[in-house]
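Archive entry. Fields below.
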Amino acid sequence: MEIKPGSRWKSAVCTAELVVVRPPASAGELQCGGVAVIAQASDQAPTGAIDPAHANGVLIGKRYTDLPTGLEVLGAKPGKGSLAFDGRPLTLKEAKPLPASD
Amino acid sequence: MQTALILEIAADACPERIALGSLHDGMRFAALRARANAAAHWLRQSQGHNAAFIGMNGAALPVLLFASGMAGMPFVPINYRLGDDDLRRLVARTAPGVVVVDDDMADRISGTPGIDIILRSTFESRFVDGPLPVPAPLPDHENDIAVLLFTSGTTGDPKAAVLRHVNLTSYVMSTVEFLGCDEDEATLVSVPPYHIAGISAVLTAAYGGRRLVYLPAFTAEAWVEIAAREAITHAMVVPTMLGRILDIMASTGQTLPNLKSLSYGGGRMPEPVIARALQVLPHVDFVNAYGLTETSSTVALLSADDHRNAILSSDPAVRRRLGSVGRPLPALELEIRGPDGARLGPGEPGEIFVRGEQVSGEYLHKKTIAPDGWFATNDGGWLDEDGYLFIEGRLDDVIVRGGENISPGEIEDVLRGHPQVADCAVLGLPDVQWGEKVAAVIVCRPGICDTDALADLVKARLRSTKTPEAWFFRDTLPYNETGKLLRRVLKAELAVES
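PREDICTED_STRUCTURE:
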């Protein structure tokens, strides 16, 4: 799994879709609902069950990070599974919204 | 990340939301993607390396901006207000390339070698109006330059600022939440396409899921009329525009009840104008933004709460923040340095330096960013005890008149060409309406110096906004030992005189 910046992924077990904002410093597996994500362009539809240990959900517009590797992922579509990198749950990146300036 | 990805994910997540234009017949996000995709296929068939745009604001701008990104070509919006010779010179610098040009401007650039010209009416009938195309996959590309923007430098010879995809997308993602806008929000864009804020407005609106409405060219009457008709909630204006908008609101009685947020930037805002704006538009959040082309737009902002706190405060240190540009964005670093490069403390004026992913600090063939990532803005300023940034103006001598950067050098060149002018200096003086006005200091040859004739000369050779509005006369001009004009000395003298 080559996790490049700007690459698009979808959950194998729920409706979540993801965009990689920052790649991880070391190779590993991006997971959603406890299962490896699949390339967005793939024809494969979501099947199977969400691991109850990884079922906190993905929210649209939120960013999730893996602090040890620097991986950062954007929720492009919401889903019921939650994100992990090599089994380690990603954490929601709290960002205070800024006023529009453009 | 690439800028086109912003549109791709927005179109996937909310295909039916209106991206562009009017609520009842605007272009939806899915349609904007499909049209940009079709235009990208057309761009790829051309032999061009760049996709330039010369024209007024409108739907063609976001379509071509996103299409360029999808096709892997830098997007190059060019200032149509330039004189014909300057315009042709810049267009020639984009060769080999494609130029989409407003029909009534096309003659000005015809015959430029290496340039394929497509009239805007043709572009619009193929890629903005007409039946909706079905998006087809595009090949991958390696281009990482999203936008080239020509900026006026001190020498008057425009430099092409390079904005890479990573700069712009970092800016967008660190300042806006993806689809964080309500469906009824709409931004009115009146800054021209060749201004960095015109580019960032397209990207931040698409990422936030906010409808974009264009004013083809600014007049205060049209701005107020469209803002009311289109239920505009957000807008960005340069200081000169704000005063005129308030005048029109006063004369028409329009109160703009839908307006929520008005940001301003691009020059010094006279305090009487912003104080009046806060009074006339109590329901509006005012945001002062400071940024540069080379930093992908905003690097510091004064929030609505900062405005309110400042105007209500009896503490002079808080009150004066109304004249500041607020605090640096959380995603970047900002510091003030002295001439020796040392970091300065609160209250000490020096040069503003910034560092962060949105900072390009790069021109074509010339990177000005330090190896450690810090970029010298060439702006002077200082921070107060709480980190509010106050701008003192360009360290070089560019005049910022109504948001337009004007280089004194080219005006001086024209004036020096007049037989009655022995020597001259052009500089900016403070002005309530424009932020700065163009002032000329003339050393006359024996005889009579006719300022009307000089003004006509500048107007004819350059353009009206570059014509000096204040004239001074001297027997000599101050120069240093290496022959460099001491503009600051002159400026200080004139500030006392005028």
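CURATOR_NOTE: The radius of gyration of chain A is 13 Å.
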